[in-house]
């Protein structure tokens, strides 16, 4: 009798198979492995589904989940409402347990869903082409930097300090090995945006790309048009966007972006401690052959029927090997399909409403905090659904400890990543924060600060 | 029909809280040119439209849940539903990466334990769970190699040796980390040619990337000699863990002398492939490289679990946050379920299945190399091409008509008309028999009427697609017809 | 292939805690003849076998998630996934019926609120959520009728009047409650014939069972007169709520004079049909019948919600426990989502859809009765039979080839070759247009080549099945071939 | 713009449709409804998915769920482990949202799954034929009584008092209207079983059927063979079985049962406050045309391919109307498919192991309690996984209140339904009760009693 639900072999089958192969026992199949390697795994014995489920439920309960608190923390991962339909569909076995669509005839579900995803990203970003996903926002930025260098052969990347700190670190890690220089551009201390004048001084013939957040880490909408105007025709403008914001704010492609990347988690994906997220990547048509990642295209079958296939695979590692545009192989296809389902369900109006409600709440909270003793807005630039204030009287860490007692996940503490901002905090609201949660927060802040 | 063609202006599939807005869409602070003029053309559908559309799309996919999926080097084993249920618990799915560590102790325990369990399984000393996929793990590993030699001042080590049988990601990752790739030819047995290797090894070689068993499913039995050669030369040995499913509980890369390893949790540890991802590619290292791992690393002290950013020699970060946590969780549950006995048995049955199928199929299509294989094996389809004019691709497409997924084709590159087959341990003898019978039927068809194969498939949602034109004149997004 | 044929002796798809047994299978206290000799022959499969088998079976089904499903009187509307997620919350799914009421206050609140919301929607005074389905509700209602007259000493009321257009469950339920059924013929407009009714009404008539709108989709506009006639005769009026979807927010059965009503939560209130169940058939009554409801009833006092068993005149219980709670929960969530505005709009759009499709199709197949319909309508296929020799069944089977589910056929019985169509409000105009176009195409096929229809379907997992033989020589279980 | 995610109509479409129909407004479509009925619904306005989910989660949290406690209560609904696979498969839209399989060509999934279910029930019960489900155990018993009367034309049902109290009440409710006499048979006060001698005295030519639990409500395995031996050839033996027990105990069909019914909830269905459950119903082949409910049979299509269809529909209400064998129409098909998946997964060995572990734990607990001061076993008959003890010193209600404080859902209190048993309690264990839970219970009992 077999011993494991995932391993079907019975004793009798094993014996028949060994006999057929012509060996006496399983050991013979490992004869080519030198015995010097023999060892005994030091792990617990197998257990059962019931006990594993029980243990993991206990561990899950040891965490505080976002549905139990009022969430005012964003900083790259956002708490939006995820309609029930999303997981009901995305968890269908045919999506969940399929491989990369190497056989397009039996992968039309994957391929069409990703083709639709690409179209949606193209619509959001205002660029002609998008790939079918990257790992996350950070690696998408890093790959955009590498792509820029491939496109124009220059060797310096200017990255806004107002961009997410982790994105900057990852970009530096990626660029470092290829000896690409990465330099940061300061933000204006009053507006919280990249200062065009400052950027201008840093531009030269070595600059391959300028990387800007939209909105940036402080929630502020950078003026892409002004930035673009400063760049020579070879320098690429790489924009790192929050996809939700793009229903309200002008498409970066329209404002001159050459590459738009970002974190697609807000599009129906769970926060999941930040992983798996969803990197998205769009660019101009002329650069498509320099773009990393898998791309899906429309095709006709022998009967003239429309279908979808992976295209431009000669860019990819499995064909091009050491000359590939990137080493990316497994991507985040499932998260991309989740995003496609989310965008299909929310649609044009729904996504805009999510953005609008997030925006409205943040601006209300901002105006209320502006009038609060001991709290001071730091930046005057226009913002989406996040903003920075400085706090007096106690540290943001202490403040957050107090708020947590009231089931509030307070703002992101900035001092560690931005010591120049002192005791400051990044607040975020989304449509999933209720007005009553905001009033409750305000009440607690009045008490604490 | 795409979802865009099902859209009707003004239709609605969502509902949002009806709270009053504080300021009805006031954008007074925003410069006009930054406000969107033409909103993104996303589809407008009712909820049932969306449900039907994606239900229908899903039904056009073949998946492990539909049947045998013997893609070589992909380890398409069964993905337990238990793990999906666990990953969907709110206490795991609704967590913010910047929550205080006191509020995510359950998560950190999972990560800490998994780091240790993977170290035990592979014989390494320390693990990072940060990389998002196998290739991402390779890159991480190569960055560690790079940093290691930077710290040692051996900056002349600019090259990485990769066998010609390696996965495409190996050279791509090495290149991406700034190395030059030296490809060495395998010997006539499909193994690393020790003479070629010796000749290539000099003080410019930073690392050798190997997978063992290799992509031919063959165990590199000279691995200790290779390891000795490498280390004597001051070169690091990198292990591509894509093929770990063959050897769990039998032999450990760490014991073979490897310095760095990545694993594919979505292969060996059964987290689903999700149409191509998300995966997870943890990287393990020996003690001397531990300080170079990306930050943060999960550690335990008297106060509980915490995220340690204090690694002065770290390569930095290879992605945001801490890894694909929900994927990691599924691997954790899988290891818990199987335990030491189950993991070992899984490898044994994977190898048994591969050898059983190899012997069965060898009568129809010759194997590219003789002898016992590990978890996968490669057949040489060139005989079919010569005798019947049938390409491996034709055979693959014909399999689709029989409701089966084809093996990996045209890889590894060193075999002509390669058919690379990895059955995995979760397939039963019946399924292997049925697959072999179908191959026999198709080879018979090839003999009698090769046109049947050349025009296959016939019964799939679409038939053979013109991939060449699709790449030459790419249509990469839907557009409304004018 | 059945799951039994996929079974292999000794294979295993489960895992149970490995705790040691206290007494290794000691059956010392059990008389030998009570111990099982031949264990039940259940299949032995691995987990992936089971996943693949039932995934495959599911893919052989047509469902609302696959497309338009216009079965008349079945209200196959979209079933929101929100409700499924809610019903799967452990706080609802893992509850024992005999838990202390203090530990199920959340549940009792849902039931209490739903009782009241249903009373408001239907104009009744009190509800029980106990019945498991529509027919079960009918039986409950008829048992209330019976008890009512027993208490009044009017034991001569042994008959129940049912129109000939009624759902088959009406006469069956009345019979099951021990009544004799008097069927009355409808008039030429498809409505209750008042003269027939008057003639049938005497002091042996306990109740009249009606549905309004009736199964032809026609509103019984004389309902007040009927109600007056009934009540003057001392007869109770029973409302079959299967067709409530037509009138929510417009008219209430209670206001029409009905004394008892059942609802089908799996129709009007969108809980899924689940291949035929579980449903839920709450029963509402007017004040004078409240004391006869089955026990327990959910009530609220100062200590909270509780289960009231203290109804001295109760009919007893019609099933164990308190009803199909998880179905009830889905209906509750549905009503919360739609609210008073949404419920009313749902009925309006259901009626709009039905009339739109009626007008569209009337050009192809004549309706059995003229004029405006409510949520459904009936076409008369006898013209097709006469002209092309095509039965309604043929047309239905041909629809399957076009990927659409046919309407209800051969019901109501008073229409020859009936096609009874209920689109529901969740279908869009495009879907109705597409359905009408397909019907047009099929009628054209009938004209040109009726054989196409007579042999349809062609593209389904199986083709037309021999139901006659299957019933004459029934094979009702799988058996291993000798 | 449409206002509801479930209602697709846009204003423009509504207008087009009205125009096509030839009416001015929606109101005209309701012209046949007398205006005297006009009214305004008094319900809250529509709300959104997010708010509904939040409200229902709050309500869910107000309940104590069985996974949070150690469960020693059975009494008809049992806490077994439900593997994750079950719901992943059963919740697939194609199962969940299909109707009764009236069009067999596009319902083979439903039909085959139910055919397999029937086969499994037939195997478990040892009878030739089973239907595809009833509402629950209670209605299955009631329908069995009605069927017995149809079969032999007799008019009296003897029902064991040791049967589940709710099943007896429902059977009486059903039988009452058809003027079928229902009488109870006492159980032996020492064995807790039906006493053959006692039954013998009650049998006469009017007795249509004898209904017996197996195991009975007290967990005790009735001696069907002895009971059957007493019956004349016309009297039917109706057995109400726990399906889990049937892997250990002899199939009722073998022991002479003519009808076997029961509650199928333990087969992979959630406790769900007792609903939806799953009635199952099996009988001898010769009675199949008298059996209520839907039955699935094998058939051949025009190409000779095997398929499945609903058979013997002339018994059913939609054909036979007032002469139907039963009024049942909607049944519990989805629960039956869940049970089929559960039985497929657990299989022959797994179901037996569930039974064995449940049995073993109960017998251990019984033996420990037998030695405990203040606790006394009431019955000596052989039992499965439930047993009755009487308690001294405090009421069972008080005991349970104490246990609940320790997160133990204690035994079922029997006094209300069985006053003759005094202050007694029905304990239950299943494989989902851990050995450590039992030891914990024993410790608490030592303290409390």
UniProtKB/TrEMBL annotation, chains A, D:
Residues forming the Glycine cleavage system P-protein N-terminal domain are 6-442
Catalyses: N(6)-[(R)-lipoyl]-L-lysyl-[glycine-cleavage complex H protein] + glycine + H(+) = N(6)-[(R)-S(8)-aminomethyldihydrolipoyl]-L-lysyl-[glycine-cleavage complex H protein] + CO2
Return the Pfam families for the record: GDC-P
Indicate yes or no for the key word Transcription.
Answer: no
Provide the assembly information: The glycine cleavage system is composed of four proteins: P, T, L and H. In this organism, the P 'protein' is a heterodimer of two subunits.
**Task of the protein:** The glycine cleavage system catalyzes the degradation of glycine. The P protein binds the alpha-amino group of glycine through its pyridoxal phosphate cofactor; CO(2) is released and the remaining methylamine moiety is then transferred to the lipoamide cofactor of the H protein.
Record protein name field: Probable glycine dehydrogenase (decarboxylating) subunit 1
Q: Which organism is it from?
A: Kosmotoga pacifica
Gene label: gcvPA
UniProtKB/TrEMBL annotation, chains B, C:
Q: Which cofactor does it need?
A: pyridoxal 5'-phosphate
What reaction(s) does this enzyme catalyze?
N(6)-[(R)-lipoyl]-L-lysyl-[glycine-cleavage complex H protein] + glycine + H(+) = N(6)-[(R)-S(8)-aminomethyldihydrolipoyl]-L-lysyl-[glycine-cleavage complex H protein] + CO2
Cellular component, GO, one term: glycine cleavage complex
Protein keywords: Oxidoreductase, Pyridoxal phosphate
Superkingdom assignment: Bacteria
SUPFAM superfamilies, alphabetized: PLP-dependent transferases
* GO process annotations (BP): glycine decarboxylation via glycine cleavage system
Look up the EC number in the record and give it: 1.4.4.2
Domain spans labelled Glycine cleavage system P-protein N-terminal: 30-303
Q: Which residues form the Glycine dehydrogenase C-terminal domain?
A: 346-448
Which gene is annotated as encoding this protein in its UniProt record?
gcvPB
**CDD domains in the record:** GDC-P
Organism, per UniProt?
A: Kosmotoga pacifica
What GO MF terms are annotated? glycine binding; glycine dehydrogenase (decarboxylating) activity; pyridoxal phosphate binding
Question: What does this chain do?
Answer: The glycine cleavage system catalyzes the degradation of glycine. The P protein binds the alpha-amino group of glycine through its pyridoxal phosphate cofactor; CO(2) is released and the remaining methylamine moiety is then transferred to the lipoamide cofactor of the H protein.
Tell me yes or no: is Oxidoreductase among this UniProt entry's keywords. yes
**Subunit structure as annotated in this protein's UniProt entry:** The glycine cleavage system is composed of four proteins: P, T, L and H. In this organism, the P 'protein' is a heterodimer of two subunits.
Residue numbers carrying N6-(pyridoxal phosphate)lysine: 267
The protein's name is Probable glycine dehydrogenase (decarboxylating) subunit 2
What the entry lists under InterPro entries is as follows: GcvPB, GDC-P_C, GDC-P_N, GDC_P, PyrdxlP-dep_Trfase, PyrdxlP-dep_Trfase_major, PyrdxlP-dep_Trfase_small
Q: Which family does it belong to?
A: Belongs to the GcvP family. C-terminal subunit subfamily.
């Amino acid at each position: 009798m077999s011993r494991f639900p995932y391993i079907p072999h019975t004793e009798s089958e094993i014996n028949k198979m060994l006999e057929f192969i012509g060996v006496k026992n399983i050991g013979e199949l490992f004869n080519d492995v030198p015995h010097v390697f023999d060892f005994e795994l030091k792990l617990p014995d197998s257990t059962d589904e019931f006990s594993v489920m029980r243990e993991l439920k206990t561990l899950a309960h040891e965490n505080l989940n976002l549905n139990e608190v009022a969430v005012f923390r964003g900083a790259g991962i956002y708490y939006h409402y995820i309609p029930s339909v999303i997981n009901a569909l995305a968890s269908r076995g045919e999506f969940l347990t399929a491989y990369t669509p190497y056989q397009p005839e039996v992968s039309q579900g994957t391929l069409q869903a990703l083709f639709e995803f690409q179209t949606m990203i193209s619509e959001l970003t205002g660029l002609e082409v998008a790939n079918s996903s990257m790992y996350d926002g950070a690696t998408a930025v890093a790959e955009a930097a590498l792509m820029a260098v491939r496109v124009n052969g220059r060797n310096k990347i200017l990255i806004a300090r107002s961009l997410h700190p982790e994105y900057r670190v990852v970009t530096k890690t990626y660029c470092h090995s290829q000896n690409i220089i990465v330099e940061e551009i300061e933000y204006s201390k009053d507006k919280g945006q990249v200062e065009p004048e400052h950027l201008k001084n840093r531009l030269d013939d070595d600059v391959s790309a300028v990387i800007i957040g939209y909105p940036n880490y402080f929630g502020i909408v950078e003026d892409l048009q002004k930035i673009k105007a400063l760049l020579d025709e070879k320098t690429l403008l790489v924009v790192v966007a929050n996809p939700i914001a793009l229903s309200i704010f002008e498409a970066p492609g329209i404002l001159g972006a050459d590459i738009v990347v970002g974190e697609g988690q807000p599009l129906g994906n769970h926060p999941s401690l930040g992983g798996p997220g969803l990197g998205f990547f769009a660019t101009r048509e002329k650069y498509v052959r320099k773009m990393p990642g898998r791309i899906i295209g429309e095709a006709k079958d022998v009967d003239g029927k429309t279908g979808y296939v992976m295209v431009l695979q000669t860019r990819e590692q499995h064909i091009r090997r050491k000359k590939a545009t990137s080493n990316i192989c497994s991507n985040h296809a499932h998260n991309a399909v989740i995003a496609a389902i989310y965008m299909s369900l929310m649609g044009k109006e729904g996504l805009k409403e999510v953005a609008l409600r997030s925006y409205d709440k943040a601006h209300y909270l901002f105006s209320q905090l502006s009038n609060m003793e001991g709290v001071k807005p730091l930046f005057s630039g226009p913002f989406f659904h996040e903003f920075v204030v400085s706090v007096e009287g106690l540290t943001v860490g202490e403040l957050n400890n107090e708020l947590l007692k009231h089931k509030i996940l307070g703002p992101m503490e900035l001092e560690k990543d931005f010591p120049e901002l002192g005791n400051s905090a990044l607040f975020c609201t989304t449509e999933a924060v209720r007005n009553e949660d905001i009033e409750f927060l305000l009440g607690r802040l009045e008490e604490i600060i | 029909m795409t979802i865009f063609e099902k859209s009707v202006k003004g239709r609605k599939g969502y509902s949002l809280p009806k709270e009053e807005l504080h300021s009805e869409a006031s954008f007074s602070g925003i410069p006009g040119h930054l406000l969107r003029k033409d909103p993104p053309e996303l589809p407008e559908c009712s909820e049932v439209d969306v449900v039907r559309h994606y239900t229908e799309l899903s039904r056009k996919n073949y998946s492990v849940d539909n049947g045998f999926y013997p893609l070589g080097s992909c380890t398409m084993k069964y993905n337990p539903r238990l793990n999906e249920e666990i990953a969907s618990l709110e206490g795991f799915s609704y967590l913010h990466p910047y929550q205080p560590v006191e509020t995510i102790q359950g998560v950190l325990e999972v990560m800490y334990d998994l780091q240790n369990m993977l170290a035990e399984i592979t014989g390494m000393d320390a693990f990072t769970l940060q990389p998002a996929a196998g290739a991402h793990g390779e890159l991480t590993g190569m960055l560690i190699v790079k940093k290691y030699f930077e710290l040692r001042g051996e900056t002349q080590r600019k090259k990485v040796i990769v066998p010609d049988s390696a996965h495409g990601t190996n050279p791509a990752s090495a290149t991406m980390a700034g190395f030059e790739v030296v490809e060495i030819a395998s010997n006539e047995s499909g193994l690393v040619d020790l003479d070629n290797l010796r000749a290539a090894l000099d003080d410019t070689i930073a690392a050798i990337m190997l997978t063992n068993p290799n992509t031919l499913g063959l165990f590199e039995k000279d691995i200790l000699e290779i390891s000795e050669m490498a280390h004597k030369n001051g070169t690091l040995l990198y292990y591509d863990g894509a093929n770990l499913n063959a050897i769990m509980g039998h032999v450990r890369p760490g014991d073979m002398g490897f310095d760095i390893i990545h694993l594919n949790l979505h292969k060996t540890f059964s987290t689903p492939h999700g149409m191509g991802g998300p995966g997870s590619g943890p990287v393990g290292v020996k003690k001397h490289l531990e300080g170079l791992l990306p930050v943060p690393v999960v550690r335990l002290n008297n106060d509980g679990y915490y995220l340690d950013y204090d690694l002065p020699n770290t390569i930095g970060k290879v992605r945001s946050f801490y890894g694909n946590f929900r994927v990691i969780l599924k691997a954790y549950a899988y290891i818990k379920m199987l335990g030491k006995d189950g993991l070992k048995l899984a490898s044994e049955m994977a190898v048994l299945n591969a050898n059983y199928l190899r012997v069965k199929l060898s009568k129809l299509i010759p194997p590219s190399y003789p002898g016992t294989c590990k978890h996968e094996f490669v057949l040489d389809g060139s005989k079919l091409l010569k005798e019947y004019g049938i390409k491996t691709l034709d055979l693959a497409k014909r399999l689709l008509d029989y409701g089966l997924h084809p093996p990996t084709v045209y890889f590894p590159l060193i075999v002509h008309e390669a058919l690379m087959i990895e059955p995995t341990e979760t397939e039963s003898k019946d399924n292997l028999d049925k697959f072999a019978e179908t191959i026999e039927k198709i080879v018979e068809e090839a003999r009698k009427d090769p046109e049947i194969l050349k025009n296959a498939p016939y019964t799939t949602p679409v038939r053979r697609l013109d991939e060449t034109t699709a790449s030459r004149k790419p249509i990469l997004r839907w557009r409304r017809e004018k």
